[in-house]
Amino acid sequence: MHVSDAHLDEVRTRGFTVVENFLEPDLLAAAWQALFQMFPSPEAYFADPERHAALVATQFSGLKLFPYPSNALNHLSVHPDLVDAARRLCATDDLHLYKIELWAKYSGAVNYDQAHHRDYSNHSLVVPRADDDFMQVTTFLLLSDVTEADGPTKVVPLDRTRDVPLTPWFVPMGAHADEEVAITGPAGSLFIYRTDVLHRGSAMTGSNRARFVLLTDFQPRGRPWTGKMAWPDRANSRLWSMALAPMTPAQRELFGFPKIGDPYWDEQTIRDVAARYPGMDMTPYQNGLSKTAA
Ligand SMILES: O=C(O)CCC(=O)C(=O)O
Protein backbone atom coordinates (compact mmCIF):
# COMPACT_ATOMS: atom_id res chain seq x y z
CA MET A 1 0.00 0.00 0.00
CA HIS A 2 1.20 3.49 -0.83
CA VAL A 3 2.13 5.28 2.40
CA SER A 4 0.19 8.54 2.58
CA ASP A 5 1.69 11.96 3.20
CA ALA A 6 -0.32 12.11 6.43
CA HIS A 7 1.49 9.02 7.73
CA LEU A 8 4.88 10.46 6.79
CA ASP A 9 4.02 13.75 8.46
CA GLU A 10 3.25 11.80 11.58
CA VAL A 11 6.77 10.34 11.49
CA ARG A 12 8.17 13.86 11.16
CA THR A 13 6.11 15.39 13.95
CA ARG A 14 5.26 12.54 16.33
CA GLY A 15 8.28 10.38 15.56
CA PHE A 16 6.38 7.29 14.39
CA THR A 17 3.37 5.99 12.52
CA VAL A 18 1.55 2.70 11.93
CA VAL A 19 0.19 1.87 8.47
CA GLU A 20 -2.36 -0.93 8.72
CA ASN A 21 -2.84 -3.27 5.73
CA PHE A 22 0.45 -2.10 4.26
CA LEU A 23 1.43 -5.51 2.89
CA GLU A 24 -0.64 -7.20 0.20
CA PRO A 25 -2.36 -10.37 1.53
CA ASP A 26 -0.66 -12.69 -1.00
CA LEU A 27 2.81 -11.39 -0.02
CA LEU A 28 1.94 -11.74 3.65
CA ALA A 29 0.71 -15.32 3.18
CA ALA A 30 3.90 -16.26 1.30
CA ALA A 31 6.10 -14.62 3.96
CA TRP A 32 4.20 -16.43 6.73
CA GLN A 33 4.91 -19.81 5.12
CA ALA A 34 8.54 -18.87 4.55
CA LEU A 35 9.05 -18.00 8.22
CA PHE A 36 8.72 -21.64 9.15
CA GLN A 37 11.71 -22.65 7.05
CA MET A 38 13.68 -20.82 9.74
CA PHE A 39 11.64 -20.77 12.93
CA PRO A 40 9.20 -23.21 14.54
CA SER A 41 5.59 -22.23 13.93
CA PRO A 42 3.74 -21.19 17.10
CA GLU A 43 2.09 -24.63 17.17
CA ALA A 44 5.43 -26.44 16.81
CA TYR A 45 7.14 -24.24 19.39
CA PHE A 46 4.48 -24.56 22.08
CA ALA A 47 4.16 -28.30 21.50
CA ASP A 48 7.72 -28.67 22.80
CA PRO A 49 9.31 -25.42 24.07
CA GLU A 50 12.30 -27.28 25.56
CA ARG A 51 13.32 -28.43 22.10
CA HIS A 52 13.56 -24.78 20.97
CA ALA A 53 15.17 -23.39 24.14
CA ALA A 54 18.06 -21.84 22.18
CA LEU A 55 15.60 -19.49 20.42
CA VAL A 56 14.59 -17.91 23.71
CA ALA A 57 17.87 -18.07 25.62
CA THR A 58 17.99 -14.25 25.54
CA GLN A 59 15.74 -11.49 24.17
CA PHE A 60 17.81 -11.43 21.01
CA SER A 61 18.18 -15.17 20.34
CA GLY A 62 15.31 -15.17 17.82
CA LEU A 63 16.93 -12.49 15.67
CA LYS A 64 18.36 -13.45 12.25
CA LEU A 65 20.18 -11.25 9.76
CA PHE A 66 19.45 -10.93 6.01
CA PRO A 67 19.56 -12.89 3.68
CA TYR A 68 16.98 -15.64 4.32
CA PRO A 69 16.23 -18.95 2.58
CA SER A 70 13.16 -17.56 0.80
CA ASN A 71 12.71 -14.56 -1.46
CA ALA A 72 9.19 -14.27 -0.08
CA LEU A 73 11.02 -12.75 2.93
CA ASN A 74 14.08 -11.28 1.23
CA HIS A 75 12.07 -9.17 -1.17
CA LEU A 76 9.80 -7.61 1.47
CA SER A 77 12.61 -5.24 2.45
CA VAL A 78 12.73 -3.83 -1.10
CA HIS A 79 8.94 -3.61 -1.46
CA PRO A 80 8.37 -0.60 -3.77
CA ASP A 81 6.00 1.15 -1.34
CA LEU A 82 8.42 0.73 1.56
CA VAL A 83 11.29 2.12 -0.48
CA ASP A 84 9.09 4.95 -1.74
CA ALA A 85 8.12 5.92 1.84
CA ALA A 86 11.79 5.88 2.92
CA ARG A 87 12.80 8.00 -0.10
CA ARG A 88 10.17 10.60 0.74
CA LEU A 89 11.18 10.73 4.40
CA CYS A 90 14.89 10.88 3.64
CA ALA A 91 14.20 13.37 0.80
CA THR A 92 16.51 11.59 -1.60
CA ASP A 93 16.40 9.14 -4.49
CA ASP A 94 19.82 7.85 -3.49
CA LEU A 95 18.86 5.61 -0.61
CA HIS A 96 20.98 3.22 1.43
CA LEU A 97 19.21 0.21 2.92
CA TYR A 98 21.47 -0.30 5.91
CA LYS A 99 19.92 -3.05 8.06
CA ILE A 100 17.57 -6.03 7.76
CA GLU A 101 16.69 -8.27 10.71
CA LEU A 102 13.98 -10.86 11.17
CA TRP A 103 12.91 -11.32 14.76
CA ALA A 104 10.85 -14.13 16.27
CA LYS A 105 9.69 -13.90 19.89
CA TYR A 106 7.83 -16.59 21.83
CA SER A 107 6.10 -16.08 25.16
CA GLY A 108 6.88 -17.92 28.36
CA ALA A 109 10.64 -18.25 28.62
CA VAL A 110 12.35 -14.89 28.41
CA ASN A 111 11.28 -11.43 29.56
CA TYR A 112 11.35 -9.13 26.51
CA ASP A 113 10.89 -5.95 28.58
CA GLN A 114 13.41 -3.20 27.83
CA ALA A 115 14.10 0.32 29.05
CA HIS A 116 13.21 3.09 26.60
CA HIS A 117 16.12 3.82 24.30
CA ARG A 118 16.95 5.58 21.04
CA ASP A 119 18.25 3.46 18.19
CA TYR A 120 20.82 6.00 17.02
CA SER A 121 23.14 4.54 19.69
CA ASN A 122 24.18 1.67 17.42
CA HIS A 123 23.12 3.21 14.08
CA SER A 124 25.33 6.31 14.24
CA LEU A 125 28.73 7.51 15.37
CA VAL A 126 27.22 10.84 16.33
CA VAL A 127 23.64 11.91 17.22
CA PRO A 128 20.46 12.69 15.22
CA ARG A 129 19.80 16.29 14.22
CA ALA A 130 16.73 17.89 15.78
CA ASP A 131 15.35 18.90 12.36
CA ASP A 132 14.35 16.37 9.72
CA ASP A 133 17.63 16.55 7.81
CA PHE A 134 19.90 13.50 7.94
CA MET A 135 16.96 11.32 9.07
CA GLN A 136 17.44 7.57 9.47
CA VAL A 137 14.18 5.71 8.89
CA THR A 138 13.64 2.53 10.87
CA THR A 139 10.75 0.16 10.23
CA PHE A 140 9.05 -2.97 11.57
CA LEU A 141 6.82 -4.96 9.24
CA LEU A 142 4.47 -7.01 11.42
CA LEU A 143 4.23 -10.54 10.01
CA SER A 144 1.91 -11.73 12.80
CA ASP A 145 -0.95 -9.95 14.56
CA VAL A 146 0.40 -7.88 17.45
CA THR A 147 -1.94 -7.12 20.34
CA GLU A 148 -1.17 -5.81 23.83
CA ALA A 149 -0.48 -9.43 24.83
CA ASP A 150 2.13 -10.03 22.08
CA GLY A 151 4.96 -7.82 23.35
CA PRO A 152 4.23 -4.74 21.22
CA THR A 153 6.95 -2.15 20.76
CA LYS A 154 6.15 0.79 23.05
CA VAL A 155 6.95 4.28 21.80
CA VAL A 156 7.01 7.69 23.45
CA PRO A 157 5.78 10.46 21.11
CA LEU A 158 8.50 12.97 20.28
CA ASP A 159 6.67 15.94 21.77
CA ARG A 160 6.95 14.30 25.21
CA THR A 161 10.70 13.90 25.03
CA ARG A 162 12.00 17.02 23.29
CA ASP A 163 13.67 18.07 26.54
CA VAL A 164 15.20 14.64 27.27
CA PRO A 165 18.88 14.94 26.28
CA LEU A 166 20.00 12.64 23.45
CA THR A 167 22.82 11.36 25.65
CA PRO A 168 22.57 8.98 27.37
CA TRP A 169 20.60 7.11 24.70
CA PHE A 170 18.38 5.31 27.23
CA VAL A 171 16.31 6.35 30.22
CA PRO A 172 15.77 4.40 33.46
CA MET A 173 13.35 1.46 33.24
CA GLY A 174 9.80 2.66 33.78
CA ALA A 175 10.40 6.32 32.89
CA HIS A 176 7.70 7.59 30.47
CA ALA A 177 5.62 4.48 31.20
CA ASP A 178 2.42 6.52 31.31
CA GLU A 179 3.18 8.29 28.01
CA GLU A 180 4.06 5.32 25.85
CA VAL A 181 1.96 4.10 22.94
CA ALA A 182 1.76 0.36 22.15
CA ILE A 183 2.37 -0.46 18.49
CA THR A 184 -0.39 -2.97 17.89
CA GLY A 185 -1.93 -3.98 14.60
CA PRO A 186 -2.89 -6.85 12.35
CA ALA A 187 -0.25 -8.80 10.45
CA GLY A 188 0.78 -6.79 7.39
CA SER A 189 0.98 -3.48 9.32
CA LEU A 190 4.03 -1.28 8.91
CA PHE A 191 5.49 0.64 11.86
CA ILE A 192 7.83 3.48 10.85
CA TYR A 193 9.87 5.45 13.38
CA ARG A 194 13.04 7.51 13.70
CA THR A 195 16.29 6.91 15.50
CA ASP A 196 15.72 9.79 17.93
CA VAL A 197 12.47 8.30 19.28
CA LEU A 198 12.43 6.69 22.72
CA HIS A 199 10.88 3.23 22.45
CA ARG A 200 11.30 -0.23 23.94
CA GLY A 201 10.54 -3.90 23.49
CA SER A 202 7.88 -5.10 25.94
CA ALA A 203 7.07 -8.34 27.71
CA MET A 204 4.83 -10.91 26.03
CA THR A 205 2.04 -11.14 28.56
CA GLY A 206 -0.19 -13.64 26.76
CA SER A 207 0.40 -17.36 26.93
CA ASN A 208 1.33 -19.39 23.85
CA ARG A 209 1.94 -16.23 21.81
CA ALA A 210 4.51 -15.65 19.09
CA ARG A 211 5.51 -12.39 17.40
CA PHE A 212 7.31 -12.23 14.03
CA VAL A 213 8.58 -8.92 12.62
CA LEU A 214 10.91 -7.86 9.82
CA LEU A 215 13.04 -4.80 10.52
CA THR A 216 14.35 -2.77 7.56
CA ASP A 217 16.22 0.51 7.96
CA PHE A 218 17.15 3.24 5.46
CA GLN A 219 19.23 6.39 5.30
CA PRO A 220 20.48 8.74 2.61
CA ARG A 221 23.54 7.25 0.86
CA GLY A 222 26.95 8.70 1.53
CA ARG A 223 26.89 9.32 5.28
CA PRO A 224 29.60 7.04 6.64
CA TRP A 225 28.92 8.05 10.22
CA THR A 226 25.60 6.22 10.13
CA GLY A 227 24.65 2.63 9.30
CA LYS A 228 24.75 -0.82 10.87
CA MET A 229 25.44 -3.72 8.53
CA ALA A 230 28.27 -3.99 5.99
CA TRP A 231 26.58 -5.88 3.16
CA PRO A 232 29.77 -7.38 1.67
CA ASP A 233 30.15 -9.18 4.99
CA ARG A 234 26.84 -10.98 4.27
CA ALA A 235 27.51 -11.57 0.56
CA ASN A 236 29.48 -14.80 0.68
CA SER A 237 26.47 -17.06 0.85
CA ARG A 238 24.29 -18.76 -1.73
CA LEU A 239 21.30 -17.03 -0.14
CA TRP A 240 22.74 -13.60 -0.92
CA SER A 241 23.06 -14.41 -4.59
CA MET A 242 19.58 -15.98 -4.59
CA ALA A 243 18.14 -12.79 -3.02
CA LEU A 244 19.91 -10.23 -5.21
CA ALA A 245 19.81 -11.96 -8.62
CA PRO A 246 16.06 -11.49 -9.28
CA MET A 247 15.95 -7.91 -7.94
CA THR A 248 15.81 -4.92 -10.26
CA PRO A 249 19.01 -2.88 -10.67
CA ALA A 250 17.38 -0.10 -8.59
CA GLN A 251 16.66 -2.55 -5.77
CA ARG A 252 20.26 -3.83 -5.83
CA GLU A 253 21.52 -0.24 -5.63
CA LEU A 254 19.82 0.04 -2.23
CA PHE A 255 22.49 -2.40 -0.99
CA GLY A 256 25.31 -0.50 -2.72
CA PHE A 257 25.46 -2.43 -5.99
CA PRO A 258 27.06 -0.26 -8.73
CA LYS A 259 24.48 1.65 -10.76
CA ILE A 260 23.87 1.08 -14.45
CA GLY A 261 26.49 3.18 -16.25
CA ASP A 262 28.88 3.29 -13.26
CA PRO A 263 32.53 3.31 -14.44
CA TYR A 264 32.97 0.06 -12.48
CA TRP A 265 31.15 -1.85 -15.22
CA ASP A 266 33.14 -3.16 -18.17
CA GLU A 267 33.05 -6.38 -20.19
CA GLN A 268 35.10 -8.21 -17.57
CA THR A 269 33.06 -7.15 -14.52
CA ILE A 270 29.76 -7.85 -16.30
CA ARG A 271 30.93 -11.35 -17.21
CA ASP A 272 32.33 -12.16 -13.78
CA VAL A 273 29.42 -10.68 -11.81
CA ALA A 274 27.10 -12.79 -13.97
CA ALA A 275 29.10 -15.85 -12.92
CA ARG A 276 28.81 -14.87 -9.26
CA TYR A 277 25.04 -14.30 -9.49
CA PRO A 278 23.46 -17.11 -11.53
CA GLY A 279 20.24 -15.92 -13.15
CA MET A 280 20.99 -12.19 -12.86
CA ASP A 281 19.98 -10.38 -16.06
CA MET A 282 23.07 -8.35 -16.97
CA THR A 283 21.44 -6.68 -20.00
CA PRO A 284 20.80 -3.35 -18.23
CA TYR A 285 24.48 -3.13 -17.24
CA GLN A 286 25.55 -4.14 -20.75
CA ASN A 287 23.26 -1.50 -22.26
CA GLY A 288 24.63 1.07 -19.81
CA LEU A 289 28.12 0.23 -21.05
CA SER A 290 27.28 0.95 -24.65
CA LYS A 291 25.75 4.28 -23.60
CA THR A 292 28.86 5.23 -21.60
CA ALA A 293 31.13 4.25 -24.48
CA ALA A 294 29.03 6.10 -27.10
O1 LIG B 1 11.20 -5.75 19.62
C1 LIG B 1 10.74 -4.64 19.84
O2 LIG B 1 9.53 -4.40 19.86
C2 LIG B 1 11.67 -3.48 20.06
C3 LIG B 1 13.07 -3.91 20.33
C4 LIG B 1 14.02 -2.78 20.42
O3 LIG B 1 13.66 -1.64 20.43
C5 LIG B 1 15.46 -3.06 20.49
O4 LIG B 1 15.86 -4.20 20.75
O5 LIG B 1 16.25 -2.11 20.27
Automatic annotation (TrEMBL):
Keywords for the protein's UniProt record, in alphabetical order: Dioxygenase, Oxidoreductase
GO molecular function ontology, one term from the record: 2-oxoglutarate-dependent dioxygenase activity
Superkingdom field: Bacteria
Pfam families per the UniProt record, alphabetical: PhyH
Coiled-coil annotated residue ranges, if any: none
Cofactor names: Fe(2+)
Keyword Oxidoreductase found: yes
InterPro entries in the record: Phytyl_CoA_dOase-like
Name of the protein this chain belongs to: Phytanoyl-CoA dioxygenase family protein
